[in-house]
Amino acid sequence: MKRLAIFASGSGSNFEAIAEGCRSGAIVGAEVVLCVCDKAGAYVIERAKKFGVETLVFNPKEFGSKREFEGMIADRMDALGVDLVCLAGYMRIIGDELLERYGGKIINIHPALLPAFPGAHGIRDAFEYGVKVYGVTIHYVDATLDGGKIISQVAVPYEGDDIEELEAMIHKAEHKLYVETINKL
Ligand code: GAR
After folding, report:
1. How big is the CA angle at 121 (ends 116 and 124), to the nearest 5 degrees?
2. What is the pLDDT of residues 146-173, one digit of tens each?
3. How many CA atoms lie within 13 A of 48 on its CB side?
4. What separation in angstroms does the CA of 73 have from each of 38, 66, 79?
5. Residues 6 or more apart in contact with residue 142 via CB below 8 angstroms
6. Cα distances (Å, whole numbers) of residue 20 to 15, 68, 142, 175, 181
7. 89: Cβ below 6 Å to ligand 1?
8. How far does CA 136 lie from the centroid of its chain?
9. How confident is the prediction for the chain on average, in pLDDT?
10. Whole-angstrom Cα distance, residue 157 to residue 62?
11. Pairing outcome for strands 30-37 and 55-57
């Protein structure tokens, strides 16, 4: 079994899609062994508990540096034998410590067709720009914001004016693409 760690800061709908994918067999031969969260109270923590997944919740402000808290995370991942790190709404740039120790094994999902609309508000930025084809990108992670070699993408055409409807369509596309991509990897 390949062992996955999922990093998230918020709701965790992608966490749930991946955990459910492992449970249902849509992702073959993998299990989620760790949920890393940098925000106490984030809903992803509840979801992880529901799936019986260990949670590592930390407050970055309690550490002297990013290298320090990333070292703590990497130590736990070493102990669990993590094979792949999936970022799922983890709203921090990955630093040197994790890139040195887990480089090439960290992937991220972004709710836009990168390199367009990187950052924390990909859907809103694309909507305000007025694009007609939205989408989702999964890519290897490097030291830049939403940068790194692209693994998979899917387009989500939308010409309406309801951002909530659009968000729902993009999240649905994310859940499907993340499960399919992890299964292929
Ligand atoms: C997802 O839409 C993900 O693509 C996005 O955060 C959301 C997390 O939702 N990530 C980024 O914007 C990264 N720049 P979730 O907590 O429900 O999975």
Report:
1. 85
2. 889 999 999 999 999 999 999 999 999 9
3. 26
4. 11, 11, 10
5. 99, 148
6. 8, 32, 27, 10, 14
7. yes
8. 12
9. 97
10. 43
11. parallel
Q: Domain range for residue 24?
A: 2-184
Please tell me the residue having the least CA distance from ligand 1 atom 4: 110
Amino acid at 131: V
- For 77, the token pair is 């991942």
Ligand 1 atom with least separation from CA of 88? 18
For residue 110 and ligand 1, the question of a CB distance below 6 A is answered with yes
Residue 183 binned pLDDT confidence (cut-offs 50, 70, 90): very high
Mean pLDDT of the 136-143 span: 96
CATH number of the domain where residue 92 is located: 3.40.50.170
Query: Considering only 6-10, 42-46, 72-76, 142-146, which range has the smallest mean pLDDT?
Result: 142-146
pTM metric for this prediction: 0.97
For residue 9 and ligand 1, the question of a CB distance below 6 A is answered with: no
- Is there a catalytic annotation at residue 171? no
Q: How far apart are CA 175 and CA 172, in angstroms?
A: 5
Quick one: pLDDT band at residue 50, thresholds 50, 70, 90?
very high
Count: domains in the chain:
1
Residue 185's nearest CA partner among 10, 11, 21 is 21
What DSSP element (H or E) covers 56?
A: strand 55-57
